[in-house]
Design goal:
The chain has 202 residues and is an all-alpha fold. Helix content is 75%, strand content 0%. It contains 6 helices and no strands. The longest helix is centred in the first third of the chain and has 62 residues, at 2-63. The termini are far apart.
Length: 202
């Protein structure tokens, strides 16, 4: 009984020493890395917002040429509304919230892809300089979204490694301060090239 008690006291003493000697460094580094990731999340949101801001102009420009394609235009507007209604707290990016965010954004991407396929039937619209510039800007924005998403994953990775590696994982379990940040994940089948001339990412 005495040996068990001594063993428990020794373990507690070791954990206490580790906490006092390594705890502050672990905490400060964790805060710094998490701030880097949450700051990058702001760039991701900004890129997605840029896409959302472009859509009303694209739809309005197309209306004059595609009067009978109202269903397609309506679906794009509805997808945009759902996509802009889902927000994530950058300090608490859980896998569940990330999955929900990605789902509505993927629905937006699908609606845009179908819209572009419809536009292929309207050569006059494709020749419209304003419309061409909007589509070019959309393509640049989609590329920017991919870049910012990848950068977010890159910035989240050091934080996740920091809280999972030994002995940091013990300290983190003891203090219960940090949770892992969810990553963007590629959509299944995203390695297959789309059937439209623009790349809308994953």
């Amino acid at each position: 009984m005495k040996k068990s008690l001594i063993f428990i006291i020794a373990i507690v003493a070791i954990l206490t020493i580790i906490g006092f000697t390594m705890g502050p460094k672990f905490y400060n580094t964790g805060i710094s890395l998490k701030e880097d990731a949450t700051a990058q999340w702001g760039n991701v949101e900004s890129a997605y917002q840029r896409r959302a801001d472009l859509i009303p102009n694209i739809v309005n420009t197309a209306k004059g040429y595609a009067e009978f394609e109202q269903e397609t235009l309506t679906k794009v507007i509805e997808a945009r509304s759902k996509a802009t209604s889902i927000t994530i707290d950058p300090t608490n990016i859980t896998p569940e919230k990330m999955e929900q965010f990605q789902q509505v954004q993927e629905n937006m991407t699908g609606a845009l892809s179908r819209l572009l396929a419809v536009f292929e039937r309207y050569p006059d619209l494709k020749a419209n300089e304003n419309f061409k510039e909007l589509i070019n800007e959309l393509e640049r924005t989609e590329n920017r979204i991919n870049v910012e998403r990848n950068r977010f994953n890159e910035s989240a990775r050091p934080f996740n490694k920091h809280i999972q590696t030994f002995p940091n994982n013990i300290i983190n379990n003891f203090v219960g301060k940090f949770d892992q940040i969810a990553y963007f994940k590629a959509k299944e089948g995203s390695d297959v090239a789309p059937n439209v001339e623009f790349d809308f990412g994953t």
